[in-house]
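Phospho-sugar mutase, Microbacterium radiodurans. Tokens?
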Amino acid sequence: MNAAAALTAARAWLAQDPDPDTRAELSALIAAAEAGEDAAASDLVDRFATRLAFGTAGLRGRLGAGSNRMNRVLVTQAAAGLAAYLLEKAGPDAPPVVVIGFDGRRGSARFARDSAEIFAGAGLRAILLPRLLPTPVLAFAVRHLGADAGVMVTASHNPPDDNGYKVYLGGSDDGAQIVPPADAGIAAHIQRVADAGDIGALPRSSEFETAGEEVVEAYVGATATVAPAPAGAAGLAWVYTAMHGVGFETLSRIAEVAGYPHPISVAAQEQPDGAFPTVSFPNPEEPGALDLAVATAQEAGAELIIANDPDADRLAVAIPDAAAPSGWRALTGNQVGLILGWRAARRAADTGAASGASLACSLVSSPALQVVAERYGLDFHATLTGFKWISRAPGLVYGFEEALGYLVNPETVKDKDGISAAVAILGLAAEAREQGRTLGDLLAEFDAEFGSFASGQVSVRVDDLAVIGRITAALRAAPPTRIGDTAVVSFEDLAAPTSGPPLGDILRIRLEGDARVLVRPSGTEPKLKLYLDVRGDSSADAAARLAGLENGIRELLAAIG
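Tokens:
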């Protein structure tokens, strides 16, 4: 798209934009471009040369005016397209039911109300959750209310200027996130709405419902049963941070119902704030994100730190560690995922439910979960990345992915749920405490029981997405024969496997000594991610092997340039 075409598209967009803020933003850009300012013209091309793509992650992007941004025009088009899709699939007996949730990000409440009005105007039964709430509550509500679909307005742990639109389906999908071909069907309807022009012509109605607190209370009650507090919970001092998100109220209530002591809150991060003022990036995986939680824990003499991301679908855990510079060590997603998987496997075996039951994790998560499943006689599934796939594993009793996502109660929520996972971790910590042990001891026991696995990640954040394509193309064109001092055993391109269907844009490299590297572009951020897994004779040996593999990967990336 050239500058003239972008100007034409911008004027058409402005004519239908109902939001005074984005109208002012776009009007100023149009005026500057008309005055010959090159930067404004380039900005318009960036905003209008393409659209935010609707896919299995729904929509996610930067806030602002234009088809390549998140805004009220784009959200209205998405809602109208989803409504058309649901009506097309609906039977004649009753209108489709859609439940809508929203978090504390900028624009979330307005986007949710726009969606409810569009759904109601299209003849659907639209139910808006009563206030800003965690994503897992919306995922729960789809099943609890018997809805045909659910929409959560959130960008999860993305930067402050982002927002998104996440879609779930009921019925045979049972409240899971959308997968093909539903994503393409919804996207086609959205495109037809966009091609029709003015969103002002779409019917709207304020005759939508607002759900009562009963929905939230039902989620609280169901989640509290994940791990009722054992005797060892008495006096447990634990710090919690909501990371300026929406988790505090809900998790605090569940902890109370389940019988755990009230959390010691990181006060500066307790209330929802879409500006995320105390963190450079609202993701508990990022360096520095847990600094305030650690300071709070040190001051309180706490035994455990629990953190959710802003929409509370992810969980981070930190434990005391005298060897760490701060005295606290953040556990990796794989470490948390494996001890929760061990918990699930034991419970399935103890209750006689192992037959037909399964554990699942994404391809890029630790291979140790398969070892756990086999030990307890459970099935195991390695899935594509994302809980839209993990949640669909046959016989699932537990699933996780290394990016701090855990599904501990699939009978209640068919998505990652950082709140129910937090309750499960509180249960493990309390049980260990009752026996004079800690979560750190559980990790050591896992190594002794199943072998010493270690995982790491190298991330390449880029400003130009083409860089990611250049790196993966170079690896495909000339697969490495060694990484560092270790020989490569096999190189697989899972986008074009030698047998079976494509599994996605993932490269899997196996190395001598039971090690592997997986390479994939991030689905939500401008990053290339490289996942490293090794197995050693001891935890020290595994750590040394992982360090060597990481050095080898960095050398390989430097050579590619």
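The chain has four domains: 1-49, 55-203, 212-450, 452-560.
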